[in-house]
Amino acid sequence: MVKIPVAQQRLYKNIFVCKRCSLKRRATPKHIIEKRVKCRRCGRNEFRPIRKKT
Ligand SMILES: [Zn+2]
């Protein structure tokens, strides 16, 4: 596993992006998996981690 600087990890750890409108949202991964987090713009509950560059 590649080591990631702690500061960067902290910055991106709990931030997810809406798959449809790419709105950034802070949430715990557990909530994302359980789909308890809703996008406040488009109302979807599908998110991806922010680290993946698009
Ligand atoms: Zn959205």
What does this structure look like?
A 3-stranded antiparallel beta sheet has the order 2-1-3, with no helix packed on it. Strand 1 and strand 2 form a beta hairpin. By secondary structure, it is of the alpha+beta class. The mean pLDDT is 87. The two termini are 22 Å apart. The protein contains 2 helices and 3 strands. The chain has a domain of 36 residues. Bound molecules: zinc ion. Zinc ion binds next to loops.
Main-sheet strand order equals: 2-1-3
Task: Tell me the series of helices and strands, N- to C-terminal.
Answer: HEEHE
**Tally of separate helices:** 2
Radius of gyration: 12 Å
Helix-and-strand structural type: alpha+beta
Q: Globular, elongated, flat, extended or rod-shaped: what is the shape?
A: elongated
Low-confidence stretches: none
Overall pLDDT level: 87
How many E strands? 3
Q: What bound compounds does this protein have?
A: zinc ion
Helix content: 10-25%
Strand content: 15-25%
Terminal Cα separation, in Å? Answer: 22 Å
- Main sheet overview: 3 strands, antiparallel
